[in-house]
Amino acid sequence: MSDPAPTSGEALTPSAAPETTRGQWWAGLGLLLLATLLFRLPPLLNARGVHSDAAIVGLQARHMLQGEWSWYLWGAGYQGSLDALLLALAFKAAGATALVLMLVPLAGHVLVELLTFDILRRRLGPWLGLLATLPVVFTPQAISGVALYAPRQWCITLIFLGLWLLDGASQSRRPLPRYAAGAFMGPLAIYLDLYGLQLMPGFGAFALACCVDGWPGLSRGWRRLASSAAGGALGWAGLQWLRHHSGATASTASLSLEPMARNWNLLWEACLPWVLGYGVYVPGPNLYPDRWAPALPFALVQKLGAALLVLGIVVGGVSLFLWRLPWRVRRLGGLGAMVSAAALGGFLVSPMPADMWSARYLAPIVWFAPFALAPAALLLRARRFSLALAPYLLSAAVGGWMSYGFYVRGPLPRLDPRGVAREEMEVARVLRERGVTAAAAQYWLSYRLTFLFEENPVVIPLTPGDDRYPPYRVAFDQAPRVALIFHPSEPRAQPAPYEAMLRQQGARYERLEVAGFTVLLLTR
Fold first, then answer.
1. Which of 1, 27, 124, 312 has the most other CB atoms within 10 Å of its CB?
2. Is the pLDDT of residue 13 over 60?
3. pLDDT of residue 236
4. Taking the model in full, what pTM does it have?
5. CA gap 397, 418 in Å, rounded
């Protein structure tokens, strides 16, 4: 399908889009990088506030440097170990610190921004492309949480790399290898995280759309399609071989209409508002964050921004039938709209959504918003498009900033005791002085403390079913002196029931209060 001949007053065609100079390209990249780092400065300053899901990737990376290899993340047969491998390389170069643990996924997010900008500037020009990229710079928590904490970001990055390869394949000197490499990224992303499965319908449709891009003849079109199919098939075959020979047990979740009523309420009342910027949850001392109640004027800005974003995504889907727009812009709009529809549909029929944190399943709406908005950007041009996008960007930036919780005070970042881990390191000092080499804590404390303590001592989950690395439990079971660690931030695991159990067993233990933590020292 080729673009129709331009008519009077027609929007920009690909050939008429403003050429991007090298200076404009670097300027756009510099602005994106600066805005990305400034917006994420609070968690970067508090990098030692790492949670256990990210810490386990850092621990595996440390073990990789000692020659211990696994194709999958510890305790997660549905997530590949590329994140740990990249972290191991970064640890080797810059040290195995919490800041490096955060910078590696952030580098993957910056690459997503760069790839998005490069795709859009080819279709829209440099400055309009830069504007359309901003929704993945100023983001809600569902995106920022992935960009700053392993292990999901590189799955998303590989998908965007595949889109970038496919989008520019027809204009490259060697298109067929590029079609194959782009399609190969889809299965590779699924290997990194089954989360990528919900993006595959849009990814596959976009690959097909790129194969028919400017179809000059049947033979060349079929060669493009064959190259893409070969790349995708090779990746899929490799994925199946790896799952079969690595002994991994992939997690699966069935889709059903049964949870639709419950999920609809969760979607409408909590998750969708958070993703679209008109509902903000602020972490605090409680287990679940509280929803912020803004003043009426800003609440109206939030609702307006969300409505305009949704309208832009709808225009992206409808643009497939707006023949006066260039095909290469229309296919981007269709991609963004299709991914958004798949995310919403998958959320409604999945058994996984449970609370407001399930907004992460709707994150593809924001990741692909720049593509969905491309047709609207081309129709409105820079001034009107920037005005239309401003309310959402403002509400997303304010909401994303407030979702950093204790890491911010108003418009400024701040150092939080948990973020710099002073109290945790005091606990480590006391345990080491008492000769404790292994301890146990609630899951969200356990691997976080193990990483911060540099495995001296190791801290396992209190519940064996939460184990991610069995050798840690072996070390705990064999240690002559262990500790049970509790903190008020984890109300589901408090010391009273464990003390009662120890007294009932006649165990010898000592209770300590250390920097806000309760520690039960147990001698066997």
1. 124
2. no
3. 82
4. 0.91
5. 24
Query: Max Cα separation, the chain?
Result: 89
Cα separation, 253 vs 255, in Å, equals 7
Question: Angle 402-406-409 (CA atoms, 0-180°, nearest 5)?
Answer: 65
Condensed to tens digits (0 to 9), the pLDDT of residues 174-201 reads 888 999 999 999 999 999 999 999 999 9
Cβ atoms of 188 and 139 within 8 Å: the answer is no
Range of the domain at 466: 421-523
Q: Per the domain annotation, does 503 fall within a domain?
A: yes
Q: Is residue 32 part of a domain?
A: no
Rounded Cα gap, residues 103 and 405, in angstroms = 20
Q: 141-148 and 153-167 helices cross at what angle (nearest 10)?
A: 100
Number of domains in the chain: 1
Task: Check: CB of residue 109 under 8 Å from CB of residue 147.
Answer: yes
What whole-number distance in Å separates Cα of residue 66 and Cα of residue 453?
Answer: 18
d(C-alpha 187, C-alpha 194), whole Å: 10
| Structure-block tokens of residue 99 | 């800041």
Antiparallel, parallel or unpaired: β 517-523 and 508-514: antiparallel
pLDDT band at 17 (very low <50, low <70, confident <90, very high): low
